[in-house]
Structures are given as C-alpha cells and as structure tokens.
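B., you asked whether I could sanity-check this one before it goes into the benchmark set. Here's the sequence:
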Amino acid sequence: MEKIKNTARATINRLGRFFGTDMMYIVKGGFWMNASYVFVSLVGLATSILFARFLSKADYGMYQYVLSIAALVSALTLTGMNSSVTRAVSRGFEGELVRTTKYQLWLGIIPTTAAGITAIWYALHGQSGIALALVFVALFLPPANALNTWGAYVSGKKDFPRGFYYGFFNTIISYSGVIILLIFTRNFIWVAFGNFFFGLVGNFIIYFWTIKVFRPSANVDKETVSYGNHLSLMNIPGAIAAQLDSILVFHFVGAAALAVYSFATLFPEKLAGGLKFVSGVALPRFSEKNEQSVNNFLKRQIWWILGSIGAIALAYALIAPYLFVWLFPNYMASVPYTQVYAFSFFSVAGGILQIALTSQKKTKELYQLSFVIPAIKALLLLVFLFYFGVWGIIWAQIITNFVSIIFVWKIIASKKSTEKITNL
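And here's what the prediction gave me:
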C-alpha cells in the first residue's frame, strides 16, 4: 500500500512540474471540493427525478421561475463578499468572518424589501402562488446568504475536508425539507418554502458551529468590506443576465417550455459546476501570489484548460440521449437543446480567468467585465429569442461564454512577462 502511495505522489509531482503548478495542492483541495459538489449534484439529481415525477411541467416551470426571481433578489445581497472574505482570511484576517456577516445581515433589508414589493405586485395581478413564494424569499433568503459566509472562511483557511463535511450537513438539511414537502404536497409553493427556509436553517447552524470550532482571531483588514462591496456591485449585471433566459422563456413561451428548458440546462450546469472546483481551489492560492506569477501560469495553461473542457463537453453531448431516456423520459424534448448547451462548459474557463483578476484585486478590469459581458448577453438573448425562440436562448449563452473568455484573456495577455514562470 505504501508503495502505491509513493508512486501516486511521484506521479502527481511529475505532473506538477509539467504543468508548472502544485498539483498536490489541487488534488487535495480539488478532491474535497469536488466530493462536496458530487454529493450535492447527486442529491440534486435525485430531487430532479422526483420533480419530473411529482410536478407537472407547468408547476415545475412556475417553481423555476420563482427560483429565477429569487436569484435576482439574491443579486441585491452582498454576493461578492465571500470572495473578499476568502481573500482576507487566506492572508490572516480571520475577524472578517463575524464582521462581514453582521454587515450583510444589516444590509439584508434591501433584498427583503425588494422581494416584498415584488410579492405585492404579483398578488395584485392575480398570481397569488408566486406572491406567496416570494414572501418566503423575502423572509429567508437574505439572512441565509449572509450566514453562508462560513464557506468563505473555511475556504480561506484551506480546510477543504471540513468544508466538505459542513456542506454535506447543509445539503442534507436543505434537500430533506424540499423532498418531504414535494412528495407530500406536490405543490410548488410549499416546495419553495422548503428550499428557502431549510437553506436558512442549515447555514445558521453551520455558521455558529464554525465560530465555535475555529474561534477566529479578531484581526481584520479594513479593505475587505470595501472590496466586497465592489465585487457585489460588479455581480449585479451578471446575476440579472444569468436569469434573463428563464424569465424570457417563461413570459414569452410559457411555464411548460421553461420546464423543458430547465431540464435541458440541468446536466450541463451541474457538470460545469463540478469543474468550477478549480476556481475555488485557485482563489486562496492565487491570492498569495503576485500578479505576474498568476498571469504567467495562466498563459502557460490556457490551451490545456480549453482542450480539457472541450473534450468533456463533447463526451456529454454524445451520452445525453441515453441519460434522458433513463432518468427523464418525460423530457425527451430537452435532448437536442442539452446537447448543444453542453458547450456552455466553457464558462468554467472564463471563471478561472476571472478568479485571477479577483485574487489580484483588479477592480477596474472587474468592473469592465461585470458590465460589458452582461450587456452583450442581454442583447443577444433578446435578439436571438425573437428570431430563433428557445434555440436562440441556447446559442446566445454559448456565444457570451466565448466572448467572456476572449475579453478576460486580452486583459491577462496584455500584461508583459517580467519574471520567470513560478509554480503555483
């Protein structure tokens, strides 16, 4: 057994020298982060199978629409604070966990008010189901988003195994509530209640457990809140653009069509999320390095990253029909869409490049990225939907992903190399 371990370590170290990075760090961190994501994805997949069985297409479309509105409300929370906290904690400023959480809870009045006003609007227009679901969003989502800062702290500490166990516990709580309410009520309103209420309960428990276990020091970085505010503001256009597809499909094609579209994007988004563990591992490591080291590393690895993602996308496109026959036979209409949507995997590459900018606090460039790309995406979605319907939505998102990669890459490539490439 020891011989096998030594051989594995030697192989990983050789790969590290070849790729110019600390592969042992990526393997260890990536294992735990990906294990967490795999578990969440499997539970989510099982839940999706139950959704396909217990909810009609119209009801499932309504539920997805509520989730889209909730995501828009979430954009008004401080969504960029976690990245700022991870950056700060990795540099020794552990007191930012408590300080930024209190700050986020206080500012939660903004998304709560927005969700409440939206709920009233839907109630006045005869959409009582959506209105009630949005009341749950107003009450539970903002505090849950504030308390989930525990994940940023654990990531900054690079304690990936503990992050997995905490995430495991949170997933069990959240999905158990959703599944029980789904089976016994078969009503999208109460399923929405389970989603947001139990999400708050899980984050509440883990947040205070994190404080008890780690006992964070009082060290704070005065720039953390300011930088988190900037990152959050940058995230708003992207968050709006990210939900624009579902909102457009719901309003112009219908709830049932949104259900078909949601299942078409289900596997690609889950798989892309699984690949994003690289970004989660990279942020604390990139934050410790200077800008030139990070840029040189990415210049060396970009084609390997793109090639790997392309191979995964192609493999998924080939097996997608068999997955749907087995898991979602009622949604075979989603298959052609999901095969093409597989190329949205390239958003992972854009995410890695953007993490490099975030780690180096490139505020100006991040602002440019956060407004230009969502504007392009919104324009493409509106125009392509008008001419091509749901297919237009699919292609608009894929094109936007490639535009984003090119945009960020031009920023990174424009930085002239002034030092030797170093291992990350």
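One thing to flag: DSSP finds 18 helices and no strands in the chain. Otherwise nothing jumped out at me.
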